[in-house]
Fold this sequence. Notes:
Chain A is an alpha/beta fold.
Amino acid sequence: MTRKAAIIGGGVIGGGWAARFLLNGWNVSVFDPDPEAARKIGEVLTNARAALPALSDIPMCAEGVLSFADTITEAVEGAEYIQESVSERLELKHRVFAQIQQSHPDTLIGSSTSGFMPSQLQEGAANPAMIFVAHPFNPVYLLPLAEVVPSPASDPSAIERAKEILREIGMFPLHVRKEIDAHIADRFLEAVWREALWLVRDGVATTEEIDEAIRMGFGLRWGQMGLFETYRVAGGEAGMKHFMEQFGPCLQWPWTKLTDVPEFTEELVDLIAGQSDAQSGVYTIRELERIRDSNLVGFLRSLKDRNWGAGKVLREHDARRRVVLPDPAPAGAPMIMAHMQVLPSWIDYNGHMTESRYLFAASETSDAFLRFIGADMDYVATGFSYYTAETHIIHKGEAKLGDRLTGSLQLLSADEKRMHIFMRIQKDGVDMATIEQMLLHVDMKAGRAVAAPKVILERVLPIAASHADLPRDAAVGRFTGQRK
Amino acid sequence: MTRKAAIIGGGVIGGGWAARFLLNGWNVSVFDPDPEAARKIGEVLTNARAALPALSDIPMCAEGVLSFADTITEAVEGAEYIQESVSERLELKHRVFAQIQQSHPDTLIGSSTSGFMPSQLQEGAANPAMIFVAHPFNPVYLLPLAEVVPSPASDPSAIERAKEILREIGMFPLHVRKEIDAHIADRFLEAVWREALWLVRDGVATTEEIDEAIRMGFGLRWGQMGLFETYRVAGGEAGMKHFMEQFGPCLQWPWTKLTDVPEFTEELVDLIAGQSDAQSGVYTIRELERIRDSNLVGFLRSLKDRNWGAGKVLREHDARRRVVLPDPAPAGAPMIMAHMQVLPSWIDYNGHMTESRYLFAASETSDAFLRFIGADMDYVATGFSYYTAETHIIHKGEAKLGDRLTGSLQLLSADEKRMHIFMRIQKDGVDMATIEQMLLHVDMKAGRAVAAPKVILERVLPIAASHADLPRDAAVGRFTGQRK
């Protein structure tokens, strides 16, 4: 049965939560008295639909159903998880929790608050044990971090359940061991923000120069290693202790104004707003959002390639959702070996899937087939592999961003050394391209074709026999430019 | 003539500078009395050689010559630029500058200092006007940022010359308008470091949890937009002023301990070093360096794809170094249309260039040819383009990471609607793959092949005529699996 989440408060943060749940197959009911709520959430959802699937290497599940409730009680009815993202006013949050717990005292309630500690949120609640902080980061549908902060009054098993749900929607729940003002990350943001205001106020740097100082240097480091691991590397072989001893004394240097709060005058606001307009005003906020999301997708995908940091979270999320493919029906029918989605990096300047990506899609298909017959990574590690000797591609249609493709394979013939295969890359059952290939079984060290071992041939030859009588496409055996 | 840079002080930072200059074709002379200097710089250079070329989309120029000098005077002889990266001791830096300026008072001297202001560096110098801060970020060979800080005594034209040199080696010189302790970026690092020490000391978070709080969330944002642009987006359509008004009051909140400096005890050092070991000790520092560099290459390449932030710097650096190709000799010889280098993302699990990348290399070649005949991006914008209808690839060799490849094109035949082309992807003049293609001139809106316009045919048909008598490879007209 489809699971349900309730979202109380539908701004940018609430909308981001809604998008994450929906795109992970949950039904979502939103309560927000703002008459603009549906439009605002719709805009966040549009962004999320364009970005989140680009992180997935397996087909996305069917999107859940979004609905808007007239009351909090209606929104939380049947919900397994409730996320509160209303304004940062404690008495308002208390009213929301009281309303929820009147009818649903035992449902998980995460709060997006950055300003309040869980023990403050729990004050006067019917069931404080179910209320905790689940603090996300914008854009919620892309950034994995959720700071999960319990208080001593929280139910530990409820917290574990909440963390598991957050993992199920692809997030990284960071369990904060002690409640503290601003949790962890926002304490850093606060420190940097304060220093930045001084620099602008004192005319040392503009907003643009400060942004460049961050994104041309340490910002790139922090996105993949954070603070301590970066410094560990900087310390070199001598280690962290050495680094500390070098860098520790600097703390005594008089180079910070953090001890003061800059006076928050209208002039300062105007100065910063004006500089920001000069820096970024050429883009609308929507454009900046799309640029940001595209950049984040790029970062996250490169971390995913490397199975590192936030990319590790993406891989684990894929693994959770990986559906075991039904048996690819080796007997007497082409085998569907791959399900793919056209990713942003597959697109050329025409907006179409670039030609080399059709061959890439075919490689995904033949790789899955090679794994199926036992010529997998472990086999390659023994020094043998199937290499592609020759390829013939016929382009028949144009795939576009987000299209779902399947790759099917027909084994035209096989002997000890060779496999002659024919693949179709299809969208909605229609050929986008056909790819005919000759694969050779190779001794990689000797650099020549050799007979495949019995254990593989015992998988291959029966498939070849069962495919022998399948109809052959007109493309088979055709040379480039030949008339049909 | 090859230009020369002198590097005074050859640690991780000096080595990074040396690598940047060398890989951009400069000769480099290093002075460092440390007997280990050559080994240490060699290690940085090995890392740089593995990473920096992966950011370039044009062939790297020939590496400069690295030498080690016995004296400062010998090192700076004939140097156009001098970078000082000795220990952070002011009297030592003063001695170095005095030594340099005894013989070379008019050469640019950048200092890597994070701790001293330029006016401090200039104290007592023979020619203070030539001394300035050029503060880089580790790894210097990958991160573009260099904070360039003059003092009022600096020579403005010297500063402009220094910035131009930094751009020439692919960096982003950030001109800091007012000298200030720690320049700009390190003030932020200092603020975060201070807060982090408190969190660890008070048992709120471990080093690992703090790193996760950064790299799963705001670290990813900062690597591409920095602080203010990120908040501008968060402020939404209401703009930066609205954001400031929302977030400003938080500054009064009591959630920072930045006003105090944590006592720097041995216990605190041990606590942090121990947590860091638990977090990252499974990797050696060399491994962490390679992981970091690979991640940074991934981030930088995705920003380069998007022409954004640090990626824009990479594109501009490519554009500076782009050599105008010699005329591709259309008359009577295959045309060399593309020079490429095998990038990390082109490699498969066997360590070889993945098969779809041979087709990608062919696309680079045919795209350059299409631009050559006038079917460029502007032409595509008018609604017409050449589409690939059919492709035949024969794999003949294996390219590996870093290999330099050329793509040549022979126009087998052409008529109003079709071009039949044959491409060779070669390494050192030897075929790695041959690619035969049929291209159709398409009206993209109508979705059908139409005659190309006269302006293009006038370019195409003479080339076809001049290629008509060229020998044809045995692969032409061959179908998949056909015996030669």
